[in-house]
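Exercise 7.
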Amino acid sequence: MVIAAGADLIAPPHATFSRDIYAGAKFQGGENNNYRAILGEKDVRLGASSRVMRWVHAVGEFTADLGCSLFGRISSDSLMRLHANCSFLRLNAPRIEVGHAVNREQGLSDSGFPSNAGVLPRFLHDGDFEVRAGQIIRSNMVIRGRLLLRSGVRICGSVKSLDDMVLEDGVSVEGSLIGAKKLSIGPHCTIHGPVVAERVLAIAAGTRCGAWEHPTTVSAPSIEVEEGVLVFGTMWARERGQVVASP
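Solution. The predicted structure, written as tokens, is:
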């Protein structure tokens, strides 16, 4: 049967709910549960190793404990937290925290993304290309090969590679980041615009995508994201997304 509650709702563990659930207050799910769909007017929390087949929407915060499998669309009007070993497809929230290691103040201001007046020039290169550590590039980049951005590089525009792309630690990109094959983002990077990989996307701990004032989209068929990553907006794994523990 459909379950509707006007007060806080606590679901027992090891249960299967084959119809929709409406929670007028907080919803707390037990471990190893199966859900069809949940609508929560306040916070929604799923116990460890739980599964959602269709969708969840929380007006308050949404939290998925260790090892949850989120097969449908998961959304929150305020904040979303996913812990290690969770799998997902489509997530949407003003702020998405992956794992325990997210700085609570991180991303509250967009001051790290200065606006660029006028139209930036385009840098086009045939073949593989490498940007040396600490360089500042004041242009949009299109690379018809493999691209390597060394530690501390700052790109004051957008970047596109027609092959694999690797960002080492501390890279900053003020525009979009698009990889035609595999896109690997190292630790403590900052990406302002959309992040799109045509095959595989890997994001290391400490990286921030988007900002509170400027939500963005992170998309790829396969996404592997470490604990400690922060995304503002939408994270969409068209085939499979996975949260992995930080090394």
